[in-house]
């Protein structure tokens, strides 16, 4: 069994999403001792932002420049890792009401018509990914955006990620959330403890 572990926080050792994603991976290792883990740190090893040159390359035009060639090779690695993974763990902090741009760049490389999804004659979307993948998102936010709050309409973070994975046919999605992290030490610690309880409850 293979697990793809992705971090996207720019905060390094101070990152709560990195802490939680690592705890999730530890829990999955306990559940699956022979687990093969592939790790991607998008803050250090991020694809370029999607551009007209990438679109041209996908259309079969001649590649221009070593940087673009290297970036397209990285894109293929992202795809290969996604197809091979049985479990996908993503550390996803909220930045400016949505996901980090590094994580968005990864998403732009895995949501590809003809590679991970296709349309049929009626316009319906059909996933091309193998079935049965499990996704676990370590979601961290400075403020509070739950459905029962006045700021819920500004939540373009978890909703976006769940929408992307649902579009690709990945509907076994668990969110481990720690929010209110910027509202003082007491609230921060309680949120992290609550998230760790959620992690301990993860089952195969």
TrEMBL record:
Domain of life per record: Bacteria
Cofactor or coenzyme needed: FMN
Catalyzed reactions per annotation: 2 a quinone + NADH + H(+) = 2 a 1,4-benzosemiquinone + NAD(+); N,N-dimethyl-1,4-phenylenediamine + anthranilate + 2 NAD(+) = 2-(4-dimethylaminophenyl)diazenylbenzoate + 2 NADH + 2 H(+)
Keyword Oxidoreductase: yes
Class in the EC hierarchy, top level: oxidoreductase
Cofactor note: Binds 1 FMN per subunit.
Known EC number: 1.6.5.-, 1.7.1.17
Keywords, in A-Z order: Flavoprotein, FMN, NAD, Oxidoreductase
Binding site for FMN: 9, 15-17, 94-97
Record domain Flavodoxin-like fold: where: 1-199
GO MF assignments: electron transfer activity; FMN binding; oxidoreductase activity, acting on NAD(P)H as acceptor; oxidoreductase activity, acting on NAD(P)H, quinone or similar compound as acceptor
PANTHER family linked: FMN-DEPENDENT NADH-AZOREDUCTASE 1, FMN-DEPENDENT NADH:QUINONE OXIDOREDUCTASE
Assigned protein family: Belongs to the azoreductase type 1 family.
The protein's role, per its UniProt record: Also exhibits azoreductase activity. Catalyzes the reductive cleavage of the azo bond in aromatic azo compounds to the corresponding amines.
Protein name: FMN dependent NADH:quinone oxidoreductase
Source organism of the structure: Paraburkholderia pallida
The encoding gene: azoR
């Amino acid at each position: 069994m293979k697990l793809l572990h992705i971090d996207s926080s720019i905060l390094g050792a101070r990152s709560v999403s990195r802490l939680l994603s690592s705890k999730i991976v530890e829990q999955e290792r306990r559940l699956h001792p022979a687990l093969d883990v592939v790790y991607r740190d998008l803050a250090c090893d991020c694809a370029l932002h999607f551009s007209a040159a990438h679109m041209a390359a996908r259309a079969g035009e001649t590649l221009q420049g070593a940087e673009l060639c290297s970036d397209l090779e990285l894109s293929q690695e992202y795809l290969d890792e996604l197809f091979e993974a049985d479990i996908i763990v993503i550390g996803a902090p909220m930045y400016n009401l949505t996901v980090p741009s590094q994580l968005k760049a990864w998403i732009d490389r895995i949501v590809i018509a003809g590679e991970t999804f296709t349309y049929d004659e009626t316009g319906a979307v059909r996933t091309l990914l193998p079935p049965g993948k499990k996704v676990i998102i370590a979601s961290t936010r400075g403020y509070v955006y739950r459905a029962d709050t006045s700021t819920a309409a500004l939540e373009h973070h978890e909703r976006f990620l769940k929408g992307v994975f649902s579009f690709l046919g990945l509907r076994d999605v668990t969110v481990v959330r720690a929010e209110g992290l910027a509202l003082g030490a007491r609230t921060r610690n309680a949120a992290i403890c609550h998230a760790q309880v959620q992690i301990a409850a993860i089952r195969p």
